[in-house]
Structures are given as structure tokens and as C-alpha cells.
Design goal:
3-stranded mixed beta sheet; alpha/beta; Trypsin Inhibitor V, Chain A; 3 domains; single chain; 22% helix
């Protein structure tokens, strides 16, 4: 046997022995990988629980106790009946997913439009008005302040927007609040007796200097003009001159 043939035989025997050794040792050196989730569990599948109709807190507890991860809580507008509850979920209930898989829930924040009547805010203290706005589940847009001759300091004069019945939760409610009135009282539109009493309480004297014709019956015997005007500085004992409304002939009379 020449050297070439002997070399080939030795090479074949070596290959056979190497293959045999690899086949016997491979099961001890390698194993099937097991993936680990962010929660530390293996990827053995679990069924997604049904959390529709639960509160957000209960939904989180059920999902996490099922070896899953609550990934997102998304708000949606809906009806009052299911307000505050989960209305749908992703993945759907019963879906087989690996342990530690993310689950998203969608919960109802209530209707887009809420009952709203700004007339109920007028005359309240600013704090009470803001509590009522919160009870309507609307958002407070802050306060603006202006002097007002009849609305006491700290109470609501008006609100914006000014239309009753309902308001979108995307709009804020801003209050117009009185800072009070430090000058001469505003008498325009008041009955004579009420205006005289208001001035007397401040040590002022009212003098009726004449009448002015009015075509509005409700203005009869009410203050139509005053001098000095409302808000002017005054001292006790000052005189305020007024013009009083008198019923006119009206349309159709010549």
C-alpha cells in the first residue's frame, strides 16, 4: 500500500470518529432556548383575561395577576352608564399570548358634552362657583376681576361661555368676579325709594331735579340719570342729582 492510499484511509477514519464524537456530546452542550419576558416569566402562552366593564384599577390588578403587562390606558368619550370603566381592550379576551406580553385598555371618560347652566353661577362666591363647575365635570378656566356697583366683592358677575344646557369638556369655564365698588353708587335703573335708601346709608342726599319721558313702562319712577355718575369719589353729605323716568305717550299717539 502506497503512502497516498494510507493517508486517505486515515483521513476517512478521523472524519468518522469526529462525527461520532460530535453526535454523542451535542445534547450535553446545547439545549432549546427559553425566552424570558420583562416580567421574568417564560414564554409559555397564557390567555388574556376579560377586563371590559372593570375600573382601571381592577383591570390593572387582573392583568398583572395574569402574568401580563398593562402597557397603556387610553381614554375615550362615551355614555354616562359606563363612565370610568374599561370599554375595550387589545388584545381581545381569550387571546393566547406569551407571559409578560403587553395589554392595552381603553376606558370611558364620559360624554363629550356635559350639562351646563352659567346662570346658576351668578351670585355665588368664586370658590363655590368653581366647585359647581367641577361637579358638572367641566374644567375651570380661571377668573377675571372687575368692579361692580351691586355684586359684592368676591362674587360671580357672569361666566364665559354664556349659553345654558350643555358644554364640551374641551372648553373651559372662566368666571367674571366682582372686586366690589368703592365710588358713588350706580343708581341708574333703581326705583326712587331704593336709590334714596342706598345713598342715605352712605351719608349722601338725593335730589330729584326733573323727569325724563320714557316709552318703557318698567322705567317709570326709576332713576334714568345721575350726577355725579356712578363710581365718582364722594364725601358724606354730598348731594346726588337724579332724573326720574315718566311714562310717555307711546307710539300711535300724536
Amino acid at each position: 500500500m502506497n503512502r497516498t492510499l494510507a493517508f486517505l484511509l486515515l483521513a476517512l477514519v478521523g472524519l468518522a470518529l469526529g462525527f461520532l464524537a460530535g453526535s454523542l456530546s451535542a445534547p450535553f452542550a446545547f439545549h432549546t432556548p427559553v425566552f424570558i419576558s420583562s416580567m421574568g416569566y417564560s414564554s409559555a402562552p397564557v390567555a388574556v383575561p376579560d377586563v371590559v366593564g372593570l375600573s382601571r384599577q381592577d383591570a390593572r390588578r387582573v392583568i398583572e395577576s395574569g402574568s401580563l403587562l398593562l402597557a397603556g390606558e387610553w381614554s375615550e368619550y362615551g355614555d354616562f352608564e359606563t363612565m370610568g370603566l374599561v370599554t375595550r381592550q387589545d388584545p381581545p379576551p381569550g387571546t393566547e399570548v406569551p407571559r409578560g406580553a403587553p395589554v392595552n385598555v381603553f376606558w370611558n371618560v364620559g360624554p363629550l358634552y356635559r350639562p351646563y347652566d352659567p346662570r346658576q353661577l351668578v351670585g355665588l362666591t368664586a370658590g363655590d362657583a368653581e366647585e359647581l363647575v367641577a361637579d358638572w365635570q367641566l374644567y375651570n378656566g380661571g377668573r377675571s376681576r372687575v368692579p361692580h356697583p351691586t355684586v359684592p366683592e368676591g362674587r360671580v358677575i357672569s361666566a364665559s361661555p354664556w349659553f345654558p344646557e350643555s358644554l364640551s369638556v374641551r372648553r373651559t369655564v372662566r368666571l367674571l368676579v366682582s372686586t366690589g365698588w368703592t365710588g358713588l353708587p350706580l343708581l341708574t335703573g333703581l326705583p326712587i325709594a331704593e336709590a334714596e335708601s342706598l345713598l342715605a346709608a352712605k351719608g349722601l342726599v338725593m335730589l330729584v331735579t326733573g323727569e325724563t319721558e320714557t316709552f318703557r313702562p318698567e322705567d317709570t319712577n326709576r332713576i334714568m340719570e345721575q350726577t355725579p355718575g356712578g363710581g365718582a369719589r364722594f364725601q358724606a353729605g354730598d348731594t346726588v342729582r337724579v332724573m326720574v323716568g315718566r311714562a310717555g305717550g307711546g307710539w300711535g299717539q300724536w
